[in-house]
Amino acid sequence: MDNYLQLFERNKSSTKFKEGLIHEIIKLYTAGKIRIGSEVVTAVNEIALRFVDEILWRIINQAHNEGVKDANLDHIEKIIPQLLLDFA
């Protein structure tokens, strides 16, 4: 389990989505009618990173539980139902 924790330790600034990407995603849901502050972009970026971290951890954990060293699409399909329930 310690290996999983080390795998997902990262510096705050080491991984980010591009600000333009976050802006465009937010615009899809606001139809461009709302101005988006930099604090919102930062918060959405951090939430998205945590979500991706959780997805990756679950995929790796699923593969490990099955005793395989390579994660594949089957592992993603197996974690999706519980992931959606947990984040609904």
UniProtKB/TrEMBL annotation:
InterPro entries from the UniProt entry: CENP-X, Histone-fold
Molecular function terms, GO-annotated: DNA binding; protein heterodimerization activity
Record-linked Pfam families: CENP-X
CDD domains on file: HFD_CENP-X
Keyword Cell cycle part of the UniProt annotation: no
A biological process from GO: kinetochore assembly
Keywords: DNA damage, DNA repair, DNA-binding
Similarity comment text for this entry: Belongs to the CENP-X/MHF2 family.
Protein name: Centromere protein X
